[in-house]
């Protein structure tokens, strides 16, 4: 048996494999908050990470990264990619768990593939985990895995963490395979969510299915349990995820100079508003563009004084709702520039690409206002990253009430992304506040910075793993 005592399993590895036409293989960081949060945790634990390398039909031999993480690639075929990844994970579960922003598709074939791929992940993990190891399973793509793995390897300690919201029982109940998913999750010793509200939804659902619940949910400790018929107990708790805040907060003179130059390129005197997201319909990118456009239209913002920079990572590009969102966003960018830009001076700067972390940090640092407007988001690490980059108390955050981060970042300019007037008000208040009430904004930023620095990703991982150990 293998000697991996700590194994993380996620659909994605932290790196994506790219093979050039001449066969040369390179790895690039993979997208999303899950990978951003877990990478530093695994590096500290010298752990083993089981996951998909981001390409179809290829799974290189396991290897160790320069920073000591053992990567164990799992192969997905084209049919797996379509049925498990694009289908059941991202066209069924993703929209269902994000409160039906688009309509979920319930497809029996996708469900079968989802089950098969979860079985395959279980075999892989069973082969790499040491006797009595701790296995930490991540996210909605692998909800059957705890149950399957417990049957295969009853010696393991199994944790499960959901990185996206958990919906109200009435929404979850739409799912034709709802019981199977709940049974899958019950294979874990501890099930963690970002927010107490998510955990309460899960407990309400369990009660509805006749499972006995004891205790009340709390944050970073386990005071609620599901009591199973076979005498086993499953802990349930809230563990708000976070970022490697210290790394984000460290600024050399060269980094600071780079951020200043970036701002100067956009216009020294201009107020720079920034959006950074995966290009996903949950993120409300179109709505924020429309709010910005209306503020320009009414003269509340002057196109000579402000600009908006939107950096959007390509994501799930073949799925219809993602294609539609991209074309709507790009149409809006074109329209707004057509209406308000001057030659050589766009009002919206749009990049459809992933950028290296260092560059992203410079964007965060130079931005006067950060716009984070998801319709629904488990946490939203972008909001926390922006805050961590502003240890000098500069800047302002406009944040959707429907992002999990709003529970902690209460000093943000909160808005309701379903109400365009609400986004406009929050954005205008932030822009005007920068000039009229700089000391108020600095106080707000100071409080949020302290919150993010104290509640970093180590606290998230350690509190979850401590609770799991005490199960
Ligand atoms: P999600 O997990 O839904 O994508 P989060 O906001 O929680 O949303 O996490 C997104 C992560 O991806 C953050 O760590 C952020 O820095 C990173 N990210 C987002 N957009 C880009 C981009 N264009 N280039 C590089 N990293 C990005
Ligand atoms: C979110 C999900 C992750 C996912 C990431 C990127 O953060 O919670 O599980 O990995 O988005 O999405 P992708 O589909 O590219 O893996």
Detailed description of the structure:
This protein is α/β, with parallel strands linked by helices and 471 residues long. Helices cover 44% and strands 20% of the residues. The strands form three sheets. The protein has a ten-stranded mixed β-sheet with strand order 5-6-4-1-7-8-9-12-11-10, sandwiched between helices. Strand 10 (212-215) and strand 11 (224-227) form a beta hairpin. Helix 9 packs across helix 12 (357-366) and helix 10 crosses helix 14 (420-436). It is globular, with a radius of gyration of 22 Å. Bound molecules: adenosine-5'-diphosphate and 6-O-phosphono-alpha-D-glucopyranose.
Layout of strands and helices, then pairs:
Blueprint: E1 4-12, E2 15-19, E3 25-29, H1 33-45, E4 48-52, E5 63-64, E6 70-73, H2 78-97, H3 108-128, E7 129-138, H4 145-152, E8 157-161, H5 169-172, H6 178-185, E9 190-193, H7 196-208, E10 212-215, E11 224-227, E12 233-238, H8 245-248, H9 253-266, E13 271-278, H10 285-297, E14 306-313, H11 320-340, E15 348-351, H12 357-366, E16 369-372, H13 381-388, E17 396-400, E18 413-415, H14 420-436, H15 438-454, H16 457-470
Parallel strand pairs: 1-4, 1-7, 4-6, 7-8, 8-9, 9-12, 13-14, 13-16, 14-15, 16-17, 17-18
Antiparallel strand pairs: 2-3, 5-6, 10-11, 11-12
The protein binds adenosine-5'-diphosphate (ADP) and 6-O-phosphono-alpha-D-glucopyranose (G6P).
Organism: Corynebacterium phoceense
GO biological process, one term: trehalose biosynthetic process
Pfam families: Glyco_transf_20 (PF00982)
